[in-house]
Amino acid sequence: MAGTQELQAPVAAIFEQAQTSLANHRKNCVALYKLHVSAADKKSKKKSDSGDQTAFIGIFLDMVSRVVAVKKGPATVDRVIKFIAQYVRFVNEKALEDKAKRQPQVPTNSISSGSADEDDTVASVFVSTILEWLVQGFVAKNKNVRYETVHLVAEMISFLGEIDEDSYLSLRESLIERSTCDKESTIRAQAVSALARLIGSEDPSELQDGEKSILDVLLDVMNSDPAPEVRRAALLHVPLTAVTLPSVLTRTRDVDAVTRKLVYASVLTPRLEHPRHLSVAQREQLVQTGLGDREPAVRLAASKMVAAWFELVLADPVEELPWTGDDGGIMAGLIAFLTLFDVVGPGEAVAVDALLSLAGSRADVFDVFVFSEDYWRNLTPESAVLARAFLERSLADKREDRLESASLPVVTAFAFHIQEAYNQLLAALDDAEVARSLNDNPDDELPEDIEEELAKREVILGELLRMAVKLDYMDEIGRRKVYTVTRDMLAHPQLPPGLIDRCLDVLKEIMPTERELIRVVVEIVMDLREPEEEEGENNEQEQELTRSDITQSTLRKERSMRRAKGRQEMTPEEAAGADLVDMRCLTLVISMLERVHGNFEDNSTLEGILADLIIPAVRRKEVGIREKGLVGLGLCCLIAKSIAIKSLQLFLSQIQNAPEQLKFKILQIVFDLMVMYDRQLWGREEDGQAILTFLVDTLDVEESPVVQAVLCVGLAKLLLAGLAQDPKIIKSLLLAYVSPFTANNAELRQCLSYFFSVYCYSSADNQSRLRTIFMSAFDEVTRMHDELEDDQTMISPQQFGLLVVDWTDSRKAAETATQASRRIHAELAVDILVALYDSDRRSEDQEVLCTLLGHLHLEGPLAAPLFVKLSVLLKHIQTQCAFDDQTLDKAIGRFKSRVTTQFEADLAEVDWAEYGTPEMQELYDFIGIDMPDWASEKEKAGSRPATPESPIPSKSRKGKEKAPARKSRSKSAPAPAEDTDQDSDDADDDEGPPPSPTPVRKVSVEPPERQPSPAPESESEQEGGGEDEEEEDARPPTPSPKLKAKKAPRRSRSKPESETEQEGGGEDEEEEDARPPTPSPKPKAKKAPARRSRSKPAPSEKPEAASDEEVKAAPKPRASRAKAPVRVKRSQSKGAKRESDHSGDETPVSVPSAAAPRKSTRRSRSKNPPPPPPPEEDLDSNAENDTPPSGPVTPPKNTNGRKRVRTPGAKLALPSPADKKRRKPAAAPPPAPVGTRRSSRRTPREVAPVPASDDEFGGYSES
């Protein structure tokens, strides 16, 4: 005990000094080692005692235990950790030194002394004991202990020396468990760092079957760990080998910018010996990804890596070149550097990017260029690319002095170099033709060397033509020579298609006007289609084409575009050859039209191209020729509005059944035309809306990733440009963005990720549009998330909601100071609160919505009506919608407290007597309580009256039956169980699932659309008696919510009057005669409690004589606030009006499935939307005089005899004439494939009109 106390003080003093500075660690290690040796010597007399350092180890561990419990952060803790690791290293080094010096039978004064036969030295016992003690801390509950113990092991693991097998296996398993299973990312990162140091000590042959090696574990962590710091730790410690290199390269696309930067700066640049250790594809991927990264730090790291590669290549021996220069070997080094990439193939653009990046980091690289004559005579693909990059960079930097010092050839000399390269290409084409003729099977591929030579000559000529565009054509002789060579190349039938665009770029540069360019191309097309023309005539016109006095009409008089022999008169061989020529001509015409910006009417030559070449190609059935023809027609439409108007229907009719590639091209054409001409393409606004609806429906059912991407890009452009403002388009794009079926469509996701940020932050109006579709989109996302399959992934509904909350944040919008931008989140809060009033929502959905309320940013001042709505909804939500989960109730309480505190002054200034409006009456009807009579309490302005306990008249017979449902809002009564079964049966009988509660939200926050006159006095007497009538007259003039319970039985209007009396009784008959717009106040007061109550009335409370259809049409207490019956009824009134216009005395149509829109159960987010109810006649004259809207509308209101009018705030969704037209296609097309919302099971709407005849589309339809 005394020895332990003697060691305690000096050891503690050493640890005290070690935590002050890193500089004294070496000195303290020596001092601690002396104490260690002395403690071992005192007990060394006991030769059988292998633990003669027990006292020292106990004190040492006592010091360590004081450190591992400290929270991460203090620098003193890190210094002590480093000191412990350094002492372990010092002990092992001393043990190795003593072992080397130790002689048999010669005692030594060290802790490694002992018997030569002793397996465990004192140093190994010390290390094993410390390690075993630290491993126990890996599973501690305290995260600080776990972190510090793993951190300490990571620091000392490289200096452990030799340890026994059991300790090694225990350490390995513990580190693998910490690196993969610990919930703290910092602990996993330290475990990965420690585990990587054990890779060299692992023997793969000793692993059991199915057991992962340490390297496999680290690669999995590097690729899949959610924490960026853990992935970075694995990236920095994984060895760079041929096995690990592919996984390392995937981190260049990591979502974390720091990780992407480390790949270039800390892994590849210092640890890659030579770029040739990578494959060509890997080098191109690295350079393309790094130099194209959106983060400047990543681009800088990639450019430094490229510069390091150039230094390595420059140090290699260079092959002897056929030309020499005074550049000090820089040009030869750059050519060798370009050989790292495939400049003949798709790597040409990447090679140029790397070259320009190198010029940016080393500005003196291009200053030493000198092009000799031998350089141009011995061009290679790499040297041609180098010359072109030098020319473009010098022109971009406006370095004319650099061009002069480089001795570039003049235009005439350059024309001869182009001619020489063209001759070499013709020779390669002849060799290829000979090889093809010698082959028994002409369809076989050419020999590899011939194909490679042909590709090289094509690249060299293409680079020279790209340089020719940048030359100065003041020299007329050089201009004529370049024109002659370029025209000859275009007229050659075997010219590679990749050179057509290059030649046309040169012609456009040297021709004086677009008319001359069009005329030259038309002449070349004629030569290709009729090659039997005399050479002399061609040469004559060739000389005249450079003059501007030859008119296009002169050319058309001499020759025609039509063939002398029709297609029916050709043999199959001649027809195949004619098709190849037509494809060649169409390619040439398309390239020419892409470079023409003038009007179609100003170039009459194009009429012949359109009539004789493009339109016949459109009528062909071959997909290749038809695609070329449609693209050419679309380009003509861009410069001719009359052709565009006439051809738009043709393009739309081709979309639905076209192959993927053709559909991609047609959609590009349609979107280009819509952006170019906007509303000029159609005469009516309804037609434009029909086209947008068709495109949105196509996106919903499309399954091709390429077509999905082009649809999203086109619709996003229309929205950003303000050419489309329909919220349905935003909803479709939003669902496509999060759909699990587009998870692998990177182009679509990247486009929409950029679009939503720019669209929402650019305007408060755009944020408002996104807000209007949030709840319906949220229900759809929730349904998709519930129906996910095992192999599908998508974001959670909460993440989706947070995205929308962020996009609608007024602080990030460009118009942050406007009143419109401040109300977005307040309106969103109203929408969420209205959705929370739906008692049938699952607790999971309610939890998400309550969480979103806490993320909303409310700032004042708010508009008074909006603030009043928010206050009323918050005041009654906890009483009318008592939540089963106390957590949700607390969340609502916190939000309510925040709003009350923030707007306390505004709340005190509210004159509640001013808000006794029909709109507020509707809001209270939705909540399920009576609106207080603020007019009689005007002196209490600013204070909100208490909610009446029961607004139902006690004298009403039906009111007595419904009263318990009004008062109960939660889960007490047993009757709802029976009614739930009935609801389930009704749901099974419905044709389609009920809609989501979204329409309810709209009804609750919008002003009323119609204000009906009060019910006749006779009806009130019949239904309620005299006492009821007096009680109702004492109420406010606006109708109470009870009325909506009586609207459902009126849906089945095809029943005889006797049957109606039998089913509904006398009161129902009188209410059927009354009909809206004169609803009875008494039934309206009866609906609200049943709608807002969580406890449904028992089925026994229903009339005994009710039929199945009446049960379906009867209101459900837990339905969507009785708004659905009003919506269905008014749609029926509209249908009745349409029918009455054509047949006056027609029998009303019965709608047995009208109960579907009344439900608001969980099934309301089903994939199949409810079908619209069939039209039926309305016997009320007032209803026939109005034009009711379609879709969800607000209920009619009682305004004491005033005429029913539509308020300005009502939102109507009127059906357009285009919708009516497109619902009657000429022929039913085949069902479209499943698309971005595959789980919706919706039948896509076929809205693309099918042409009835060729005349309707100008004769462009398929023959």
TrEMBL record:
Residues 531-573, 936-1263 are annotated as: Disordered. Keywords: Cell cycle, Cell division, Chromosome, DNA condensation, Mitosis. Pfam families: Cnd3 (PF12719). Gene3D superfamilies: Leucine-rich Repeat Variant. It is found in: Chromosome. Belongs to the CND3 (condensin subunit 3) family. This is Nuclear condensing complex subunit.
